[in-house]
Description:
By secondary structure, the protein is an alpha/beta fold. It is built from nine helices and nine strands.
Amino acid sequence: MKAGPRDVIEAGFLWLGFALFRTVGIESASALGGCLGRFAGRLATSRNRIARRNIEESFPGIAGEEVQRIITGMWDNFGRLVAEFPHLHTIDVYGGTRVTITRDPGVEEFANLPAIFVGAHFGCFDLGTLLAIQEDIDLTIIYRQANNPLAERLIQSWRLKCGGTWAPKGRKGSQLVLKGIRRKGAIAVLADQKYSQGVAVSFFGREAKTAPALAELALKHDIPLIPIRVLRKPRAHFHVHLFRPLEIVRTGDGAKDVHTMLRAINATYEDWIREYPEQWLWLHRRWDT
């Protein structure tokens, strides 16, 4: 994809931002990012309309003041996410006190591989990949490429500092995922966004098109699906929770079994978002209008 003038400008601002955030420590960068995120959020009128509609339809009867609190908190989290991004490769998730980890029964160690770790655009979501990478686990991360090719190149240059194999959504990415499974490695994916060709599955009481591939992989290869949540705490500290593997139910009806597993994933996301609604990105058009 050829970059246009707007792509150059956007990528230039992103490069300057990352350079600025790298000149200070992660806690100062996070605080600055939060301020910038809240400021930018006040100007993002169209995006705020999407977020407000999503919140109000997900939490019927919610007060207007609470909706605004969630939106402000979401922009704060987003700004911090961007500011912390160029620092992620320096974080030792198993050393120090910046990251705490909770593992439910069944995921005490990364011993039962292959496995699929399923997360969401929640908290500081990119940090979750470090748990496997810093244990020298063969990790393949499925991701959506940025629309701006220059920004995509810049973002990936920082992600590669963390490690792992990054598999873009599409045919090439699918091949990398299958190779990772054959090597008995781990797969990581964020599965909370709309996939137009996906399966209609209830999410906050409304049908939402959901990508079926990870459920199909789990059923076909008997791979555990393990939800992983990265919760933001004050002063650029984080709590990573590895939840118990989702139950794999086989009834002989493949489509029904995929739908059941996708509903379990969406229900897990609902629990996370209800508890900390400001840490999820409400900006995405998750539901058909």
